[in-house]
Amino acid sequence: MDPLDRIDELIAMVEQARSVPMSRNNCMVDRGEMIAALDELRAELPADLRRAAALLEERDKIMEAGKREADRIISEGEAEHARLVSVNEITVSAEHEGARIIAEARAEAQRLREEVDDYVDTALANFEQFLTRALASIERGRDKMHALREIGTFGGDDSERPLPF
């Protein structure tokens, strides 16, 4: 029988016992019956107490194992978090560095385009000036040739006269 049931049985024995005359708190119980019930309770209690102690010890072991497992999981989680943060920081840093390099490359390409444009513009301006002078010289030469032809000095025997230009 369960020790709690034994205790309930003992309480019932006391509640059903006859009262001692002229006493409110005293009662008469069968001594032999009460001692037998208490002996049975005493015999059952050590086994139940050992089972309870074993259960408490097993509970403590399970809780300790659970705590170790929780600590391990937390530690692994923190390590993974640190790794991911590190990877993320590296990624962010690499993205910033890549953006900086691209911006520098674009700025350098723009600067080079402007330099090339300036060089080509200067070269074309110089060539334009050369061509303008050459055209002016050609035009002057043609004008002289036309003027000489009109006055008649350019005709006839060319071997005797030097060319005007």
Describe this structure in words.
This protein is mainly α and about 160 residues long. It has one domain. It is built from two helices and two strands, in the order H-E-E-H. Strands 1-2 form a two-stranded antiparallel sheet. The longest helix has about 120 residues. The chain is rod-shaped. The protein starts with a helix and ends in a 14-residue tail after the last helix. The model has no long low-confidence stretch (mean pLDDT about 85).
Counting DSSP H or I runs of 4 or more residues, the number of helices is 2
Count of strand segments: 2
Helix content: over 70%
General shape: rod-shaped
- The rounded distance between the terminal residues' Cα atoms is 145 Å
Set out the fold topology.
Elements: H1 3-16, E1 18-19, E2 27-28, H2 31-151
Antiparallel strand pairs: 1-2
Helix pairs in contact: 1-2
Give structural attributes.
2% strand, two-stranded antiparallel sheet, mainly alpha, single chain, 165 residues
Quick rundown:
By secondary structure, this protein is mostly helical. It contains 2 helices and 2 strands.
